[in-house]
Design goal:
The protein is α/β, with parallel strands linked by helices and about 230 residues long. It contains 8 helices and 7 strands. A 7-stranded parallel beta sheet has the order 3-2-4-1-5-6-7, with helices on both faces. The structure holds guanosine-5'-triphosphate and magnesium ion.
């Protein structure tokens, strides 16, 4: 008898999250900030990639980041090296960020002063998939060292994302990563999904991704807001 009640509580939590996410999305649209979230398994390279992204975008754009982890401020300290405004969200025992946490973390920030806001989720390929954070674009990262089959094993997270980013590409040969198999795995779960293949360490593939972000921002601002 306990399962239906659990299911109901979970449904209510998700419903409440959706309400806050919708309000966040309206706030983001009204202020013109483009919001990008990052999800992946622990250690795929989200913080490394984000630090590089913040550093490379800054000459041209106003950027900031929120970063979620169960414990420690380690990632915020690393991201702050980019000189962008950064805030850590520690979730305690929760394996994902929720819209309410994002809303609280943004308290006191003037979103009108930003072009891009990045949100690094807690490293996890399951929990974050059901939680909308009001973002415009969700990136799912997978590193070459994790193998080609992650999209097949964790289809829900790939389905909740808009773009796939294959990271640590300079290690591909060393771990015998088969690009074609990985591409097919992504394609079978999410046909037509846009994929970037890059290395945050060497910088290869970063220009195409940054150009894509710039274009997304331009497209967003061209659409008149309600
Ligand atoms: N060789 C190589 N190593 C990388 C690359 N990107 C990240 N790493 C390494 O991978 C490890 C994990 O990177 P992080 O950026 O901390 O990964 P993360 O996804 O933020 O990890 P969590 O926040 O714990 O989920 C670190 O040792 C990084 O130096 C890359 O492009 N190439
Ligand atoms: Mg991290």
């Amino acid at each position: 008898m306990s399962e239906p009640r659990l299911v109901e509580v979970r449904r209510n939590v998700l419903k409440q999250n959706d309400v806050i996410a919708r309000s966040l999305r309206e706030q983001f649209r009204a202020s013109g900030v483009f919001v990008v979230s990052l999800v992946s398994s622990p250690g795929s390279g989200k913080t490394t990639f984000l630090e590089k992204t913040l550093t490379l975008l800054q000459p041209q754009f106003r950027v900031a980041a929120l970063v979620g982890d169960l414990a420690t401020e380690n990632d915020a300290i690393r991201l702050a090296r980019s000189k962008a405004p950064v805030k850590q969200i520690t979730t305690g025992t929760l394996c994902h960020l929720e819209a309410a946490m994002v809303q609280k973390a943004l308290d006191g920030w003037d979103l009108n002063q930003l072009d891009f806001l990045f949100i690094e989720n807690v490293g996890n390929l399951v929990c974050p998939s059901s939680y909308d954070l009001g973002e415009d674009l969700r990136l799912v990262l997978m590193s070459v060292t994790e193998g080609e089959d992650k999209p097949l094993k964790y289809p829900t997270i790939f389905n909740s994302a808009d773009v796939a980013v294959v990271t640590k590409n300079e290690l591909a040969a060393a771990v015998e990563f088969d690009w074609e198999t990985a591409r097919k795995s992504i394609e079978s779960v999410r046909p037509g999904m846009r994929i970037f293949r890059l290395s945050a360490k060497t910088g290869e593939g970063m220009p195409a991704y940054l150009e894509f972000l710039g274009q997304e921002l331009k497209d967003r601002r061209r659409v008149p807001q309600a």
